[in-house]
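sry for the spam today, last one i promise. struct tokens for design, 339 residues
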């Protein structure tokens, strides 16, 4: 099933034609729970990985910030129990309720596996596997057709208390003997273990974050927003009550390309560590696909009660993790910011 973003409530370029020069495309990935294989693009699915290439490990040991640790098996079981309870409630039209048996299987709220389990090499987990053929905004070295995103599923204080991201590009035809079973970390922060999801890529157009537009244009957009809110009934075309930032410019959710929304801090300069070039947004992992049942970003195919959090990934208190790349070289290290 395809996923289609509804048309924007107003076409902002009718009001501000100059925005066209501050515009790029993005591919919304629309992850939904599924059973992807190594031959598929996915979020949290199995990676097409050469069996003679070492699996990436994080050796940050006690440099990790550690609070509650779970085994991947416990995280999966806990999610199954909650999903079954939600499905039961929906089928019967009753309230969400766990049975005594289910409750007994869930770990206590503040339960943690021993913290010293992080003092060993931690196998990274699969975050995304994206084939060039599926993703219109795919970016990678010319002869590659596959981008794999992995992260260490623990908090890294020196990276903004985020999971530590690594990127791999490859030619899928080179992988003649794929790894059968990826190693699993002994423990994870449960917010950083994505549910296996199929993706439903859709290209959309985005406009630059207001704070990164020329000051004068940003100010005129803000004035237009305010005027539209003041004269609610006067002029429908002005898009009463719509926000440039939240409705008209930047798509929420997991995506490739596009722009970052600097909603947590003012825009930070993202410059390459290696060559200082201003970096380009490559990939976004988001805590939700849309906010609230009224959101204009929920695909038209999906009912109002569709979960906006198909991956079960949470970044900080519900933010997004933006992964930037250097436009000069794919070999220069990526950088991340949480917003
Ligand atoms: Zn780590
Ligand atoms: Zn660079």
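last one done:
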């Amino acid at each position: 099933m395809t996923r289609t973003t509804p048309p924007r409530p107003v076409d902002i370029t009718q009001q501000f034609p100059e925005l066209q020069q501050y515009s790029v495309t993005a591919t919304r990935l629309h992850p939904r729970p599924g059973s992807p294989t190594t031959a598929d693009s996915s979020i949290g699915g199995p990676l097409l990985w050469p069996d003679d290439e070492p699996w990436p490990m994080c050796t940050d040991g006690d440099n990790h910030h550690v609070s509650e640790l779970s085994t991947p098996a416990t995280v999966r079981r806990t999610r199954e129990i909650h999903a079954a309870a939600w499905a039961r409630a929906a089928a019967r039209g009753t309230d969400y309720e766990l049975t005594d048996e289910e409750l007994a299987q869930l770990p206590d709220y503040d339960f943690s596996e021993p913290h010293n389990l992080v003092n060993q090499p931690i196998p990274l987990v699969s975050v995304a596997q994206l084939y060039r053929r599926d993703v219109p905004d795919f970016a990678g070295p010319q002869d590659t057709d596959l981008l794999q995103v992995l992260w260490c599923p623990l908090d890294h204080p020196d990276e903004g208390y985020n999971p530590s991201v690594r990127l791999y590009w490859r030619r899928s035809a080179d992988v003649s003997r794929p790894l059968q079973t990826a190693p699993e970390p002994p423990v994870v922060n449960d917010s950083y273990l994505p549910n296996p999801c199929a993706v439903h890529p859709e290209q959309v157009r985005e406009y630059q974050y207001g704070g990164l537009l020329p000051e004068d244009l940003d100010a005129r957009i803000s004035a237009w927003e305010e005027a539209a809110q003041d004269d609610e009934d006067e002029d429908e075309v002005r898009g009463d009550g719509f926000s440039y930032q939240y409705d008209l410019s930047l798509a929420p959710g997991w995506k490739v390309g596009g722009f970052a929304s600097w909603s947590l801090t003012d825009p930070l300069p993202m410059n390459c560590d290696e060559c200082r070039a201003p970096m380009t947004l490559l990939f976004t992992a988001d805590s939700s696909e849309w906010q609230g049942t009224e959101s204009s970003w929920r695909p038209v195919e999906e009912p109002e009660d569709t979960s906006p959090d198909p991956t079960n990934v949470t970044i900080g208190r519900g933010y997004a993790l933006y992964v930037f790349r250097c436009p000069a070289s794919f070999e220069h290290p990526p950088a991340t910011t949480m917003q």
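Helices lie at 12-15, 72-92, 100-105, 215-230, 244-249. ok im logging off now
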